[in-house]
């Protein structure tokens, strides 16, 4: 679910045929990572000052205003609705501009909402001038959740494009800091083993060798949201391989284990028996008798 203010802005950009993506913490569910945020950030690809002026004027007609005087060479500006605000970026990150490849790889999230390709989104995390520990954690979680679809060749090209290879390697090394001794040793061994062939295998190997899968519980299989309908892919579970659908329900809540009826695969809408073994990246609704 998105706010009325954001929906109005998206309607305007669609009408004016302005390429638009959501960025920042709001975009994380698109990459199968959940983190609560109140900030609303979007990025638009503006071709000229004339187009930017038309966009601002159209927003004013919708009672959305800005106190700034945005120029096409600015990084961002803020617009205000009746009860909230949105930061509108004119480039994906303060360190780099849009290019054709980035535009071409934009991905559909849901309805009329789009996001950057996962590789480009991580680039915005790495390149930002005020990168924090939260950005590092987000990057690691995104890599784990998207390990099977990540385009490493394209990402390596992007790292060279903005000279961030060393920054990325430092972020990857942080993977071994906050986990068990077993995982620290494992990740250290993998780093040693693959340092001459590239970083891409590290997180994948950690998950594989620990024999875990990632799964996402939802209440609404159409919108992929929680019971309140306001959080997309609200939780992420790291489960031992072989975990059954009923056991997965127990990880969510004991009552769901006790009252388990079946699981429902959000992608296919098929019912899953209690003995179904949860697969990596499954999105499942738990049907209970309560």
From TrEMBL:
<dbReference type="InterPro" id="IPR012676">
    <property type="entry name" value="TGS-like"/>
</dbReference>
<feature type="domain" description="TGS">
    <location>
        <begin position="234"/>
        <end position="286"/>
    </location>
</feature>
<dbReference type="InterPro" id="IPR004095">
    <property type="entry name" value="TGS"/>
</dbReference>
<dbReference type="InterPro" id="IPR012675">
    <property type="entry name" value="Beta-grasp_dom_sf"/>
</dbReference>
<dbReference type="InterPro" id="IPR043519">
    <property type="entry name" value="NT_sf"/>
</dbReference>
<dbReference type="Pfam" id="PF02824">
    <property type="entry name" value="TGS"/>
</dbReference>
<protein>
    <recommendedName>
        <fullName>TGS domain-containing protein</fullName>
    </recommendedName>
</protein>
């Amino acid at each position: 679910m998105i706010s009325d203010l954001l929906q109005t802005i998206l309607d305007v950009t669609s009408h004016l045929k302005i390429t638009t993506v959501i960025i920042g913490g709001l975009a994380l569910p698109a990459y199968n990572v959940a983190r609560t945020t109140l900030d609303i950030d979007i990025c638009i690809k503006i071709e000229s000052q004339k187009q930017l002026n038309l966009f601002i004027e159209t927003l004013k007609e919708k009672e959305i205003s800005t106190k700034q005087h945005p120029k096409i060479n600015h990084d961002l500006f803020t617009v205000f609705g009746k009860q909230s605000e949105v930061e509108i970026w004119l480039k994906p990150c303060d360190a780099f501009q849009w290019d054709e490849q980035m535009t071409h790889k934009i991905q559909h999230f849901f309805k009329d909402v789009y996001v950057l390709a996962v590789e480009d989104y991580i680039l915005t995390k790495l390149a930002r001038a005020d990168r924090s520990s939260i950005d590092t954690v987000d990057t690691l979680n995104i890599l784990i959740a998207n390990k099977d679809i990540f385009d490493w060749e394209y990402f390596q090209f992007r790292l060279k494009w903005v000279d961030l290879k060393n920054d990325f390697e430092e972020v990857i090394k942080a993977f071994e800091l906050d986990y068990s001794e077993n995982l620290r040793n494992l990740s250290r061994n993998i780093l040693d083993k693959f340092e001459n062939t590239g970083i891409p295998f590290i997180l994948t190997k950690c998950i594989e060798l620990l024999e875990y899968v990632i799964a996402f519980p939802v209440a609404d299989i159409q919108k992929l949201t929680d019971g309140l309908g306001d959080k997309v892919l609200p939780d992420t579970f790291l489960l031992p391989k072989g975990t059954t659908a009923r056991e997965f329900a127990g990880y969510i809540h004991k009552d769901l284990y006790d009252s388990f009826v079946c699981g429902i695969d959000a992608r296919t809408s098929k019912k899953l028996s209690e003995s179904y073994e949860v697969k990596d990246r499954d999105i499942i609704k738990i049907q209970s008798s309560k």
